[in-house]
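Hey, quick one: can you model this chain's 3D structure?
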Amino acid sequence: MERVSVRPDLTYSNCPVPNALLLVLERFQGELERRGLRFSLLPPDQAEVHFTFAHPRYFRFGGEIPPLISEGVRAPGRTRLIGLTRCRTRQGFFVLPDSDIVEPADLKGKRIGLTPNAIQVLRRLEGISYETMRPWEQTQLALGTWEARALIHTLSKAGLAPADVEWIPVPNPWAAHAHQAARTSSSFAPQDLFPDAASPEGNAQVAALVERRVDAIFSFLPYAAELELRGTARLVLDLSQFPENDYVSTWTVSRQLVEEEPEVVQMVVQLAVEAGRWAMSHPDDVGAIHAENLGVSVEAVWRAFGPHFHEQLVPRLDPELIATLDRTQAFLLEHNLLPQAVELDEWIEPGFLQSAVRC
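Sure thing. Here's the predicted structure for all 359 residues.
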């Protein structure tokens, strides 16, 4: 039997978003081994790599804000963008089940729990030395975009603006995650980084809502669905019904790996495409894999991502998804989180995906 030489480990991390790489790692291990490929999850003591991308053999499948900040603020050219996946997820502002808030207009004058980072984004970084911040804190600040953008869009449906509500600073696990907490986590998987993020014990914003210190909080992804399934909170307006609230899961890879071992990148992309196709006929497996990775119930995965998300996991680089990425970039530019636009056409490396989908 021919022996396959094993290459040095590839490193990966993922955010709690739909992605095909998880499927490769869980169901295509034999194919990886036959190609001499091994993946290791990013160690917690290297947590900053999730935001700096400073690693020669690193794949990251996650939200678009950190790679945009890396490319546009700190390290242009460090990564190549090799795939996108739509992330249309249940999201919006949640209130207690007995709240008298039933529509966006009812939020006027109410106390909205927001991370300090989201508040700074709404203030367009007034008085903040953003460009000199350390990468972890800088990226966390930019992640306040999720709440800020959702607040703007929710209130706009009632002709209101953020100034029409009271901002109460309360951290959450996603845009106020201390670097040291990430470094000392038991692993860098979302289930360990954000344990029970739909509970008062795992999320200070949920605690503030339950204790009635605020009237509404933002949540998204399966964590939002868990709030509803547990009966903890009720969604005022589901922003996922409006396409302008879409995000994309971005798949990036170290530029060094692209230049030095393009055949490795090609093999991984090929397997991701195969895994995305496999997912179309294996919904139960797809739901279970994502639920385990995120540390949520399977029901929350399907409620958050929708009944057909397993059919949309083949990575893409089509104009529609690139436009969604650019819409997020426009928000970052408008709120002073990017000094200039990232040239998306230069950042994208389409060849790997083009070759994979032809097979």
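One thing worth noting: The first helix runs from residue 21 to 27.
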